[in-house]
Design a protein that fits this description.
binds magnesium ion; binds adenosine-5'-diphosphate; six-stranded mixed beta sheet; alpha+beta; 14 helices; about 425 residues
Length: about 425
Amino acid sequence: MTVPEPGSIAVARSAVEGLRGVLRDSGRSVEFQSADIRVSVAPGRVNLLGGHTDYNEGFVLPVAVDRFVSCALYPGDTGILEFHSLDLGDSFQLDLASLDELRDDPDRFDELAGGCRAMWRRYVAGVILEMDEAGIPVVSGIAAITGNIPIGSGLSSSAALEVSVYLACGKGAGATVEAALLCQRAENRWAGVPCGIMDQYTSLLAEAGKAIFLDCRHLTCRHVPLPEGCAITVINSGIQRELADGEYRRRRLEIESALGILRKAVGPIAALRDLPAGDLAEVEDLLPQPLLKRVEHVVGAIERVEKGAVSLTLGERERFGELMVECHRSLAERYEVSIEELDLIVESAISVDGVYGARLTGAGFGGCCVVFHREGCREELESAVAGAYRARSWKEPVFHHLSAAPGARVLNAEDMSGSGITEL
Ligand code: ADP
Ligand code: MG
């Protein structure tokens, strides 16, 4: 059993304090011991290498980051599960006896999840509905949820929310690939977000100090230790990903068109994963632009993740950094999903001594860059990137200094007593 990350204990503690406050405010008993409650913590994630490789059934290389969502549940036998979002100041109830009706009646679900602050309800209720459908017994009671993952910044607070609810509310629920698929289904079906499996998989199955070399076709992984003395900084460009949804859809259609042409010419290909980089020259006359450059990006990016996993294993941090920069340039030039701000962050970051590499992470058109660097050059990195922004009179970007955290877990009484949670 891994030791819980200290940052996760602090977030769990806030959830427990919040739970106590909710119980107090509603006139219910606040006299509970840590053994009476179920507290889960789930990390966010950032992808070091890849970039539109997941839906091409290729590889990605994410790490879980030391920012968490926690769900603290005080079980009761009421048959009602009541959720309180401490961060959004919103709450709602689910009657566990009528989940079938909620599942079968989209209007009832919309009513539950209506209102401007209510997106979070879709993720939470979605997980409960999926657990119920999968035959996982759901515990009733009162739950408080809080987190310190910046929301909507590309660090996957949504997956952490789903995973924390899954672990706290599912009887016997554990960190498995099936759990990741269940949480992904909750996000796809009930929140309407067509995310891949990477976020939930990473949040559940990561190991401290390691990246996950994840095969998006077979859903198998290898944990790859990050070399000693390395650090990760995520820099938010401050640009909302407004174009991202439409352009993301367009890229996916382009890939489908390219696959259609390739299948006619070279036979059955399930996904671009099946086209080796060495065969690109043979198909280049078949594909019109921009399809050819889209395919070149994906095929190169998949191969780069494989090379990157090897470099990390060998401790070749400079080589790994070069692969990140190549990935960024390919995303910019061939996949055309970068913007000026992201390019500037990457170029100014890699000019700093001690920075191994940087690239845009996520779908592009805004959001964040991830920087892989030597520990101890944070100030130089911040000053180079902020300086480049200032020179253009842009609003300063936001920096998150992160380390590779272990996957989600349910904290036991021992974890909590060590942290002082029992004394709250
Ligand atoms: P990201 O996953 O990149 O942070 P998303 O837009 O996918 O961004 O997910 C953000 C959504 O997840 C929020 O709108 C909210 O509904 C939900 N969420 C994330 N963290 C929390 C939290 N601490 N409390 C309640 N809801 C949260
Ligand atoms: Mg998300």
